[in-house]
UniProtKB/TrEMBL annotation:
Residues 4-135 form the VOC domain. InterPro entries: Glyas_Bleomycin-R_OHBP_Dase, MeMalonyl-CoA_epimerase, MMCE/EMCE_epimerase, VOC_core. SUPFAM superfamilies: Glyoxalase/Bleomycin resistance protein/Dihydroxybiphenyl dioxygenase (SSF54593). The lineage of its organism: Bacteria, Bacillati, Bacillota, Bacilli, Bacillales. Keywords: Isomerase, Metal-binding. GO terms for molecular function: methylmalonyl-CoA epimerase activity. It is an enzyme of class 5 (isomerase). Pfam families: Glyoxalase_4. It comes from Bacillus capparidis. Its EC number is 5.1.99.1. Belongs to the methylmalonyl-CoA epimerase family. This is Methylmalonyl-CoA/ethylmalonyl-CoA epimerase.
Amino acid sequence: MDKKIDHIGIAVRNIENSIHFYENVLTGKLIDRYISEATGVESEVAIMEVGGERIELLAPTNNTTSPIARFIRQKGKGVHHIAYRVDDLHAAIDELKKQGIRTLEDTLRINKHGRRLIYLNPADTEGTIIEYCDYPNHL
């Protein structure tokens, strides 16, 4: 199954400062901005486009339960995850299972843009947080 980088997620402490940096230093464009209070997400997201590529700036909205807050406490701000676009998320999950790669089942969801996504278990990816995603309604 083909895979290509869809976006890179960056954990940030101050989303306003980060947007300013991406717009003014990297000459990026703010594509969308929203707050996700879904369980296990609890983040403000700013989607930036820089040179035709997407970056998601992720700031925690709940310092107790947000996985972004936990990530920043443990590792500091910076690259949180790399998302790979696949043709069919469910087929990709089946392929992972056959390869012995686990997913974090509780992360399976559809975001506000219709992107279906799931995170792979970092214990099986040498510690890198990897997201698989597809866009079933954008064929």
